[in-house]
């Protein structure tokens, strides 16, 4: 026998509140008193009430969903940002939908189109490099769009100066006294963050009248294996063994550190390593990883807050540059 579907008025009756209060609890819980919120949520749970999302979207013109499309879910740095975003959105009655594209432009186009068809209220993208068709889908659907992790002159953005990340690492290692440099970058194709970090490192060294050693730079996938392979390639191909290597993120840097240990290269006595991200594991390894810290969780929270202001009072986000800082630990020291 088919069980009658629970309605909004059933929840209101059980909770002893008006239908408007139930609706407000679902859409803007922060505006409802705690005792009332508890009664309504108890009634929803007791009755097994499931809101009709399509009906709410038609009535309000809002789906109360935000979409975030990230390069990969296999990198903790993106997970921290997503968690920060989710916490703020959930507290304000919004749901977060996720998609990933593994750095493939066509996959990103398909994911963005599918999410746009769900009438999301806003879209969060990572980086400034996107296929023209991706941006065209967002314009045609009228979806509010914000760029994260990078800075953009064309869209609202909350991100890091990725050129400066590379520059900061270069100045730090140069000031320690290093003159023989190497770099293990992420794959720069379709990844403006990787490309700009490399440009910042290389160009800053040139300004300091230094260079990366010929054969001492390579691109690798963001993985421990990539960092290991990168160091082996540099040791094989470099005209002179570098005394310092900058890695495009902490995962590459940790792989480089693991491989150096396996090869009996003493870190930092024989090789200094600097990463980028400041993942929690970076402080737990021995020696601790020196790295450029990015506040990824804070980036997620600020992105969510900016989107909520945009949706609620029409204040379009501008251009927000997130801070970076160098965390000195045990993998970098003056050359022996």
UniProtKB/TrEMBL annotation:
All residue ranges annotated as the HTH lacI-type domain in the record: 6-60
A Pfam match: LacI
SUPFAM superfamilies: lambda repressor-like DNA-binding domains, Periplasmic binding protein-like I
GO molecular function: DNA-binding transcription factor activity; transcription cis-regulatory region binding
PROSITE patterns linked: HTH_LACI_2
Gene3D superfamilies: 3.40.50.2300, lambda repressor-like DNA-binding domains
Entry keyword set: DNA-binding, Plasmid, Transcription, Transcription regulation
InterPro entries: HTH_LacI (IPR000843), LacI/GalR-like_sensor (IPR046335), Lambda_DNA-bd_dom_sf (IPR010982), Peripla_BP_I (IPR028082)
Protein name (Swiss-Prot/TrEMBL): Transcriptional regulator, LacI family
């Amino acid at each position: 026998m088919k069980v009658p579907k629970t309605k909004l008025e059933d929840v209101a009756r059980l909770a002893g509140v008006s239908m408007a209060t139930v609706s407000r609890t679902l859409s803007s819980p922060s505006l409802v008193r705690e005792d009332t919120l508890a009664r309504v949520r108890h009634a929803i749970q007791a009755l097994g009430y499931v809101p009709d999302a399509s009906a709410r979207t038609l009535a309000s013109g809002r789906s109360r969903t935000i979409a975030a499309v990230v390069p990969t879910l296999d990198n903790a740095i993106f997970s921290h940002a997503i968690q920060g975003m989710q916490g703020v959105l959930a507290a304000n009655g919004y749901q977060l939908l996720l998609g990933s594209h593994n750095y493939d432009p066509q996959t990103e186009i398909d994911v963005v189109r599918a999410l746009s068809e769900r009438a999301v209220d806003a879209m969060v993208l990572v980086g400034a490099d996107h296929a023209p068709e991706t941006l065209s889908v967002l314009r045609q659907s009228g979806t509010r769009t914000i760029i994260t992790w990078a800075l953009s002159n064309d869209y609202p953005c909350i991100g890091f100066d990725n050129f400066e990340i590379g520059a900061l690492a270069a100045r730090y290692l140069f000031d320690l006294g290093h003159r023989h440099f190497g770099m293990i970058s992420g794959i720069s194709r379709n990844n403006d963050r990787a490309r700009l970090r490399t440009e910042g490192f290389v160009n800053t060294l040139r300004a300091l009248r230094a260079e990366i050693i010929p054969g001492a730079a390579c691109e690798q996938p963001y993985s421990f294996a990539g960092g290991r392979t990168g160091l082996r390639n540099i040791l094989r191909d470099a005209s002179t063994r570098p005394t310092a290597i900058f890695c495009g993120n902490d995962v590459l840097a940790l792989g480089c550190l693991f491989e150096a240990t396996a090869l009996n290269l003493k870190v930092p006595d024989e090789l200094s390593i600097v990463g980028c991200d400041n993942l929690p594991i970076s402080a737990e390894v021995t020696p601790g990883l020196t790295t450029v810290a990015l506040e990824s969780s804070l980036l997620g929270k600020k992105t969510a807050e900016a989107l909520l202001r945009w949706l609620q009072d029409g204040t379009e986000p501008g251009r927000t540059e997130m801070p970076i800082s160098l965390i000195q630990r045990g993998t970098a020291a003056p050359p022996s």
